[in-house]
């Protein structure tokens, strides 16, 4: 029986009325995305049609999921909200704080020792506030959610950008910052700008070496890392129906890399099969009763150009395997062209590691397809030329894969089976084969491949592919290996070829597990004590941010003008810094250390205008804060793309940065800045970015008139006394301006709860 089945049945019981009312108000057939959005309005049935990409709308999500790195700050904030229990079903998953090094058993034991303080905090705070807790080793948050909580037609939010994975079961699942999650935990509405809609029509069917991963690799190449910003991607067509639910999850998961609000698929037979296989026949039965409302209207899919803001068509029968990268997930290259492209760009051809897993590709089907390649290598006497690592998606996946002999196949190829956790995908990897900053290549089935992402080395060229393609390339040891045409030399000196991969959608013997790793909360948590040691360097109770004084901001100094790509990894790195995710002051020592200074093209090396000397970004900013001087961060396009981590907003706020002025924002990061009481604005004229000089001072001369749809005027004073006056746009509505006035959204919640 499913978790929270009564909640799911309630959603379905009101869906028909809400969808029919929305169709009547909108005056046309509805996409699946619209059906889910309109059926989850905070006020119930709609009385007006919302304008895509413009109207801010309040929603009532069905559930929340948090991973251990982001849950710390989210729950530290929730503890200040004055609530006794979370208002909607919520779970915490311990998957980020486990470093991959020696293998599953040893690594998990090491994590439980090194991060016991954090795990104990998360378990106790979960127990106190009615939150389900998944222990370290239970699995990667998004795979566990897909196996246990996701349901067709539902809406969920999660404090991780890859929450969108649940779209594989027909949800609208959206990654958010912790402050957004706190709103919903506290029983408040959740606000989102009504998304635009991108339709992806899939025809034909996948075959041979082409996998669901190749669909999103292709889409990423089409849309780029910012092409999906502010939009939901909805997949449909015969090709969509031909894929497994976990394959759909893979596609939705990596949709985060094109900036999409989320991605989703309509309910179909593959989802029904998956629900039943994961012991949720009751959900399947309930979904079948409202099946017509769990997919887009027929007219929409018959004439998609009339109902979507943008339309992409992909023939799966013609799609070929891809590798994306290096350094960005949207640089898409068909595997057949990789050799020539690698030679042209001088990418290292020899592959050091092949890594399979992460929340994107760690399902049973993924492991079977990769194992079918590994098994051939063993049988054909071909030794893997690259090191090989595997991260199963959950304890249920691991246990079942071990029972069915899949893990033994990988071990026969000398692969290392790591813990059921994120591991190298988020930089939790103690890579012993290389030290320093040597130029090298790795291939993986993850979703993100930014510089330094996996191992901290800026010269590691990481390429993203399907699990089966990663397996083939790792066996060959070469980036230019195309298994559809290239041969390998085995131990006997014979030429052999790898046959096409074969996968099993769902285990024929069913899923099995002895201990899934779930701890349910006590019914009454009022007597549970949450301890945070005063001298802890891992956890720190929060001090509320100061409210705005209502005056114009003058005399603000430039902290850094970031050049080029500046993701949340650049603003607040993961890897070894994950240990401080619950301690705002300590983790602020990584604030913007990965951002490239536009004036010297160096990282973590900026000018201190107080003394003219250069130092690390956090050090310089702490000097400004000590002197009571406000500061401004300037950035390029799609600033803050990548992870949902709100630390990238909280750290500069904590250190005294007042404004982030950029060419454009990634959606989640812009919201995080607003929630934390920051001023996140964009150049009205992008070329004004070029006017900003290293010694500039900023005067915001009409901030006192801060209002929706009203530009802000900034006087930029240069070192020689000359001035430029520029305009900045913003997307704050009146409630968001109130967050700014109060110092943060959390301050406003506390004020309302105290009233």
Automatic annotation (TrEMBL):
Query: NCBIfam families, from UniProt?
Result: aconitase_mito, PRK07229.1
Describe the location of the Aconitase/3-isopropylmalate dehydratase large subunit alpha/beta/alpha domain by residue ranges: 35-477
List, for all copies, the residue spans of the domain called Aconitase A/isopropylmalate dehydratase small subunit swivel: 557-686
Q: Which molecular function terms from Gene Ontology are attached? A: aconitate hydratase activity
The pathway that the record names for this protein is: Carbohydrate metabolism; tricarboxylic acid cycle; isocitrate from oxaloacetate: step 2/2
The protein's name in its UniProt record: Aconitate hydratase A
Q: Which PANTHER family match?
A: ACONITATE HYDRATASE B, ACONITATE HYDRATASE, MITOCHONDRIAL
Catalysed reaction per UniProt?
citrate = D-threo-isocitrate
Keywords per UniProt: Iron, Iron-sulfur, Lyase, Metal-binding, Transit peptide, Tricarboxylic acid cycle
Enzyme Commission number(s) from the entry: 4.2.1.3
Protein family (similarity comment): Belongs to the aconitase/IPM isomerase family.
| Cofactor(s) named in the record | [4Fe-4S] cluster
**Source species of the chain:** Autumnicola tepida
- Give the signal sequence positions: none
Q: Which PROSITE patterns match?
A: ACONITASE_1
> What Pfam families does this protein's entry cite?
Aconitase (PF00330), Aconitase_C (PF00694)
**Keyword Acyltransferase among UniProt keywords:** no
